[in-house]
Amino acid sequence: MDIQSIIEFVEKYGLAVIAVLAFIEYLNIPGFPGGFVMPAAGVIVRLGYAPFMKTMIILSAAAMLSEMTVYGVSYIFADTVKKICEKYEKTAGLYKKTVDLIDRRGAVGLFTARLIPVVRTFISIPAGFMKMRLRDYIPVSVVGNTVFVSINMVLGYFFTSFFV
């Protein structure tokens, strides 16, 4: 999918297309290209198809909704994953290191992870497995998402000439 296709979809269906693409991107579906929705949204803003703040809020909300879905599924299967990991020597050590890291770093670690490409989309999985409290997970994720979305939209906005 290229920027021209996204622009055509936005013209036809509005910002809902961007929200759906962001939601899908954050579900970590293998084969679905990641990292293009936010800069593409910046291009769309620069070309006058959407206002910056509205687009940023929609993208941040879609990302958060997707991450909550991943967190929820991980939370539901946490006990099963723990049993499987502890059953084997190699995975038991890795599991313990991950649990220790999340316990040690907590919300600060989650926030930092939300700013790192690739890691940011997968951090919901161990957070769910470790049953991180929602009162810690949600606010930190919202702020981290908003910062990441904004930075990538601004990059797309300023580097529009490379995309169009």
- Estimate the mean pLDDT confidence: 85
Biggest beta sheet attributes: none
Global shape? elongated
State the separation between the terminal residues, measured CA to CA: 13 Å
User: Helical amount among residues, as a percent range?
Assistant: over 70%
- Which class of secondary structure composition applies to the elements? mainly alpha
Q: Work out the count of structural domains.
A: 1
Question: What sequence of helices (H) and strands (E) makes up the elements?
Answer: HHHHHHHHHH
Stretches with pLDDT under 50, minimum 5 residues: none
Please outline what is shown here.
With 164 residues, the protein is mainly alpha-helical. It is 80% helix and 0% strand. The chain has one domain.
Question: What is this structure's SSE topology?
Answer:
Layout: H1 3-13, H2 16-25, H3 37-46, H4 52-76, H5 78-87, H6 89-114, H7 119-122, H8 124-129, H9 134-158, H10 160-163
Task: Give short descriptive properties of this protein.
elongated; 10 helices; 164 residues; mainly alpha
Tell me what the structure shows.
By secondary structure, the protein is mainly α. It has one domain. It has 10 helices and no strands. The mean pLDDT is about 85.
